[in-house]
Structures are given as C-alpha cells and as structure tokens.
Amino acid sequence: MKKLPERDKARGKVRKPQIMNWQSRRLHQRRPLLTLNRARSCSGSIGLSALLIILSLTIFLAGAVWTGHVSLAFLWKSPIPPKIQVLERSGSGCNPESSLTKERLARLIGSHPFGSEELHAFQINNEAGEVLFVSTTLAPELQKWVMAALGRARVSSAALVVLDPASGDVLTMASYTADQKPVNLTLSSSFPAASLFKIVTAAAAVETANLTSGSTLAYDGRKHTLYRKQLMRDVQSGRHQVTLKDSFAKSINVVFGKLGAFTLGPKALEEFAQRFYFNQPIRFEMPVETSRFSPPDKDYFHLAEIASGFNRTTMLSPLHGALLAAAVANDGLIMEPTVVAEVFDQNNNIYYRHQPVSMGQVISAKTVIELKKMMRATITKGTGRPFFRDVRVHPVLSKLEIGGKSGSINNSQGRKVDWFVSFALKEGSEKIALAAVVVHNRDKLGVRAQSLVRDSIIHYFSPLVRSK
Question: pLDDT by residue (tens digit) across 97-106?
C-alpha cells in the first residue's frame, strides 16, 4: 500500500501527522478551510480576485525587468509553490473522466465495513487502477467503542449509526454478525421498520389532520395488539382515553392503526412515506439499499397495519433510521448523509470534496415541535424509560435534550428485531442522531437497542459535558 500523504489543508503541503482526540477532530473539521487555489473549477478557471492579483504582479514584474531592477536569473531560480487543483465540485460541469461523484464513489468504495485501520482514511482504486486516498468523517474513538460494544451484545446481528443532523456527517457506522461475515448492515434495508413508522404517521396526523401532541384519542383492548375488532370505531371512540403524545411514547398500535384507517387514508400515508424518503434512493458515497414502503389499499385493516408499523413489508436501513431522527433534530430539514470528506491522490490533487446538501424540508416547524414532545415522552414515560430512568440526574444525560422512538417485531425467520432511533442535543453545542437495530437470537435476548443508543450518547457527550 502506498504511504498515505499527510496534508496541511490550509496550505496544501505535506506535513507531519497531528495528534488529536476525536472530539477535538470534530471541532477542527467544522472550522472553515483556508485553501490555496482550491476555488478553481475543473477547467482551471480562476476567481476574479486571483486574476487581479496575477495581472498586478505581471505588470509590476514587467516594469521591474524593463527598468533593470529585477534579474531574470533570480526569477528562474525562485521556487514554484505547490499547485493544488480541484478536480470535482458539485454542479461545476467537470469532465466525468476526471471527477468523482457520490454515485461513482459508491461503486468504487462498495459496502464493505470499515476496519480499525480505515477510520481516518483509506485507499481505493479508480476505474483506471489509479490509487486514491479517501478521508472520512468518522469519529475514530467513537467508532472503535461502538464496534467493541456490538461485539459484546450477544445477539445474532446488530448495527448502529451516529450522524450529525446539521451537516449529514456520519460519525459512526458499525455492524456485527455472529458468524463474523464482512458485511455492512448499516446500509441494508433488510430490517422491518416496525413502530419506527409511527414517526411518519404522527407527522402526517399533525400536518393533515391538525392534531397536536395533546390531542385526546381513544381505543379498545390492549395497547400492543391489533385486531379487526379493535378497529370497529373511529379514533375518537373507545374505552381508553389517551393523548397522541402518550400513544406515541407507549407505541399503542390501535391508536395509530385507527389514525391510518379512519383519519389519514392511503394517500396521506404514501405522501409522508415519500417525504421521509421511503421508496427513494438516498445519495451516499456507499451503496444504500432503498427502504421499502408498500402503498396500502383501501382496506381499513391493511391501512391500520401500515400506519402502526405492525407489518413485515415496510423495510428500513439503519442509516435511513438515523435520518428519521435527524429530521426532527434538525428542524424538519434532512441533510444528505456523507462519510467521505475528501478524495485526493498522492500529489494532493483533490478529486472530491463533500459540500453539505439538503434533501429537503420534509416537515413543518409546527410538526417538529409536536414530534419532539412525543419523542421526549418516549424517554421519560414511554418505551425508552426503562433504559433512561436516570435521565434527570445522570451527569451527562441530564445536560441534554433527548428524544427517541422504539420498534420491535419478529422477522420472517422468527427472530425478534429491536429498534431504537434517537436524537440528543446539547444547547449551544453538538447534536447527534442515532439509530440502532438488533436481531436477537431465538433462545435468548441480548443487549437491547435502547441500551446501545443510551451508552453511545453518554460516550459521545461525556468530553463535551466535562469540558464545561
């Protein structure tokens, strides 16, 4: 393997490696880069300021040479500064033979899991066999910690994604299989979405039916079952009264089934599923399987199954699961995820540099407020409470705003699939979105998804809380 060039991003020169922990590295990445000649497009065009400077220097040197004040021999011996050329910028119309896009990178990088030596950077070969170096957005210490935690989970398989909702930077994407197969489950949509789809249904109910988290609804029977006899009356009728917030927090299937069958209908469910990028490709530098949503017919029970997540046809990838939480954490705006910061060659030519790209405003500001209330209630009094009992007194968790949504269902092989997506915000500082999925062994449950998310939040924010 060729030696990875260490590059000073401010000057484009080779430098000695700078040692920094993963938290300071994250803050370092957020600083604006002062680069030399990196505003050049693929055609080599230069900005107006650069042209004016070059023109002024040319006139000055020409005059100096003409008057004999400058030696041509001196000019010939002067060192030439390193030339840095940007070969790709989004929307710049670059030559496709020399540029890299997310789609091309997905083909070159593939879906392999990251090894412990690939967290800062790794190398790939382009179609011509040329060696390129890929600088990642991963937080190495967090990634290593998550990889170790998944290995201790005592489950059939598991995956966890942590990303920055504001930028789309992926900080961790790790997975585990008991048979040690080298697969990247964070990109796989082989997991039933289960009750995570209640996020979509709740958003549709707020925006199309003018409900709020405090709206009173009703149901009959048990909370986590879904039978036709429980759907005989509309969502305002039933023996048990409950708010939308509490039905979300406690994941009451009947309430969400009624919302889908009697309040929203197939059109609204399909519209909001598409808003949240089900049945649509997610642009990423690695190949992400499309999360699948089967548009429901007008049968009321089928509508109820889809709206409540009580089915095995709506499928979701862990990366996409993190984006669901990120939409709420980032005021309704989803950013394109990225795990590649830059791609460059041995001579420091830049072939790709990620620029933050919005996937769109998927929900309104009002809906964000209501969903945050519902997701916070999941932590304090819903399905997340057994794992966050100390959220008000814990030295790290008590300093954060945390919301979440759980989901669980048996897959087609009879194994329990256990989800938890979450956001964690520290006022005036960082915010992250997380998604964990666990497929348990048939005979015994291992570590739960809620536990993996809780411990990841603590591990990420501990340095920030202690530094205050």
Answer: 458 999 999 9
Mark whether 231 and 314 lie in a shared domain: yes
End-to-end CA distance of the chain: 42
Distance between CA atoms of residues 40 and 46, nearest Å? 5
Q: Which run of H or E residues covers position 216?
A: strand 216-219
Q: Among residues 202, 251, 194, 249, which one has the least CA distance to residue 222?
A: 251
Nearest in space to 333 (alpha carbons), one of 376, 276, 287: 276
Whether residue 278 is contained in a domain is answered as: yes
Helix (H) or strand (E) holding 418: strand 416-425
> Minimal CA–CA distance to 321: which of 421, 241, 228?
421
What are the Cα distances from residue 323, in Å, to 20, 193, 221, 277, 382?
Answer: 28, 13, 33, 9, 22
Query: What whole-number distance in Å separates Cα of residue 377 and Cα of residue 391?
Result: 12
58-74 per-position pLDDT tens digit:
544 444 434 343 333 32
Largest CA distance in the chain: 100
Q: What is the total count of domains within the chain? A: 2
